[in-house]
């Protein structure tokens, strides 16, 4: 029975390290997505920023919980993340567009959408509908 408990603790410590790494990878991926959307001036940028802000808040809470676990007296695992995906890329492979600031991750409250389905007084066109479909695919 004690052996199974020790195995479960070891497995939990491994999964915590994997989760830590996955969060760092997701953060790097989000930065790449925002740079791409900014450069391409894609109209889904604001919606993606809102989604990323939401995910970063969740990830921040998870990281805080992981840090608490890592600081437990009985924690015997490795508290450092594995090699994140971002470390596999050279700095030169990342576009030289400025990284998003925290203020870039907010929403555009100056132009809230109308309740009748149109955006800023315009009916959604084919490009807008395609962008909304890409956003839906992105969030799935």
UniProtKB/TrEMBL annotation:
<protein>
    <submittedName>
        <fullName>Uncharacterized protein</fullName>
    </submittedName>
</protein>
<feature type="compositionally biased region" description="Acidic residues">
    <location>
        <begin position="101"/>
        <end position="129"/>
    </location>
</feature>
<feature type="region of interest" description="Disordered">
    <location>
        <begin position="73"/>
        <end position="140"/>
    </location>
</feature>
<feature type="compositionally biased region" description="Polar residues">
    <location>
        <begin position="83"/>
        <end position="96"/>
    </location>
</feature>
